[in-house]
Specification:
The structure is a homotrimer. Chain A is α/β, with parallel strands linked by helices. Chain A is built from 11 helices and 9 strands. The first copy, chain A, has one domain: Ribokinase (UDP-N-acetylmuramoyl-L-alanine:D-glutamate ligase). In chain A, 54% of the residues lie in helices and 15% in strands. The longest helix of chain A has 25 residues. The first copy, chain A, is globular and about 45 Å long. The interface between A and B is medium-sized, with 30 and 30 residues.
């Protein structure tokens, strides 16, 4: 294994987000747009949400990263995402795609395919079925329709890497982050209640954007963002449960932890494994 | 009175929501879209928000219930609601309509009329003036324009039942749930601060959708959803006030209570009266 | 200095908001739409969010104030704002404009210019660079292109006053509120964490709308709204920090303080200076 990534490395990336406060342009869904903005602000980044066709290229032109999320897509917003993704690719800033609900409807699959046809996102982050569906759409275009049936999100992730040359994050109880250099990070932090708060997965994607804005290695940036959210989430859950409270309180606490997380807590809790694939 | 509904019955419906986690497709307003999703998640359901014309029928096709809310309507979203309502009717899944702001503008009244012309919602839930305005629009179509002037939300509810054959919920200090079998439930739980948090009424409607997804009797499902929200709301208000806090904290606590509400608390607090109308 | 404004005056305006619960029609951005509604409710006002072209004039016709915010503008919403602004001007209700992100893209600048061409808002509230950009656009139209380059938000505010005859609020560590009668209020309340919660600035604008609805002097109403938010924000920050919590908790606490703020706390904390410009 010819690569390393330490807790100290990740901490230095979070410190960079906090110190440099990168501008992250999000074209995201209507459910999470407020929570994502607050997550980015809590972590130290500067969010800007903008979707007008007249300005998405200009906004991508002043941002340090672009985040796309198809959760509540419609044709106008899909076109916004295409325009912004093309602008980000021309300018060379990192782009992160969250294929929310991939596989749920043919329209989502077609949209994902049309986005991938514009430019390869630097990072794609989704849960297992979303990554499998996204890869299925991609593979189908190349005349192969079996990857989704393979039933294995990691195989799907590898298929997406073959297409995009980018970093793929499959999130779940364990998060897997893979890239074209065959690097594979596994993160085991987090808490089941994170799935009981709307927008935590989408916020992970937004954080990946913020980390990519300050860390030029997308695989490292993605791993760092997922690690920080996972640790912040499990600390938030534990504190919430210790007070006898529930998921409403946990969402608030999660923002607090993203802001106030300290190095000793982070490094002592991080559960990171590295491998080659 | 040839029917019953006990606290234990309602508790079993909440248990079914928590265990079966029904998929509830919401086409709702931009103000409450996040809070509604979190309310559904806290109660144990699975929300999906989708409005693209290209996919609303598909989404209604995989959901166990459809929730429509006209709070921030515009022509695109109204068409989304019509497409989804038609799909839900064909498929036979329950549909719940929240006529937010009915009566405030002619456009809202015309929209409600056009929605009712597509299909009769399984349940309509609104406050007194919203139910009266919705009934007024309905009655007008039938050549009678006096029901709204009758000034009585319960008369309006009965007029709506005559048109839709569905369940009507008039919410307020006392919630009234009536159906075509002349069943009438009255709930007296809740707290005045629930009106000081945006989206609590809309969240009631979303919860009605979740309960209709697991309980085939819409009148019982609606009564159960309103009962659970009312008890959770009054517990949240009491805990919040005991800590000297306000409506911001109460909104968070309400999510906690929806998740953590236990049977003993619910059954001891429930204020339910049954009658025939 | 031929004018006065006391803490007691401001308190009486907040009392009027709480007692009269004015209806405030907001056409605002998708990020803050929920938080703004909750801020207005916590302060005692009644928010209504509506943007359909078919009803914005009707809604502005029943509201006591109109609030426009271009944060997530697109052509449909810009037209909504124009229709509502024209209706508010005809009817004579106060209108408040928040030029979010002015200067970030040419589209935002062009939109602001087109809004100002419809009618002069009663109040414009933005941070320094937003006010400078808005004034620059205005001045350019009149053949002068140097005000933005002057690098001075107060000069820009004065230029905007010359154009609109309205009240201009430049918010920041110190808030400046100026009007055509050469009145100048400076407020030094608040807390840096207020910039770490999305939508606090936009909520300030929404509150200005609520205060303008009950206080016919827009300069006084604007100063009152900014003063109340500043004091509520600093109390919320102090309580949050005393508990070792962060910006997530502070957002919740801010709503609580807006609801529960008492006269003694407000008057003892208010940092208001008056001058002529």
């Amino acid at each position: 294994m010819a690569f390393t990534l330490s807790a100290a490395d990740i901490w230095s990336d979070l410190t960079a987000v906090r110190e440099r406060s990168p501008l992250v342009h999000c074209i995201t869904n209507l459910v999470v747009i407020n929570f994502n903005a607050n997550v980015l602000l809590a972590a130290g980044a500067s969010p800007v949400m903008a979707h007008a066709h007249e300005e998405v290229r200009d906004m991508a032109g002043i941002a340090q990263a672009l985040v796309l999320n198809i959760g509540t897509l419609d044709p106008y917003w899909v076109e916004s995402m295409k325009l912004a993704l093309a602008a980000a690719a021309v300018r060379g800033i990192p782009s992160v795609l969250d294929p929310v609900g991939a596989g749920a409807t043919p329209y989502r699959n077609a949209t994902l395919e049309s986005l991938l046809a514009v430019a390869a996102p630097t990072v794609i982050r989704g849960n297992g079925s979303e990554i499998m569906s996204t890869a299925g759409a991609a593979v189908k275009t190349r005349g192969v329709d079996s990857s989704a049936a393979a039933g294995d999100a990691l195989v799907a992730a590898q298929a997406l890497i073959a297409r995009t040359s980018g970093t793929i994050c499959v999130s779940g109880e364990t998060d897997h982050i893979l890239d074209a250099s065959h690097r594979w990070a596994r993160l085991s932090n987090g808490h089941p209640w994170m799935t009981r708060i709307t927008g935590v997965g989408c916020s992970a994607t937004a954080l990946v954007g913020a980390f990519c804005a300050v860390q030029p290695d997308p695989w490292r940036a993605t791993t760092a963002a997922m690690a920080v959210l996972g640790v912040a989430g499990e600390v938030a859950a534990e504190k919430t449960q210790a007070r006898g409270l529930g998921v409403g309180s946990m969402a608030v606490q999660l923002l607090d932890e993203l802001q106030l997380l300290d190095r000793a807590t982070f490094e002592s809790r991080l559960k990171l494994e590295l491998a080659s694939w």
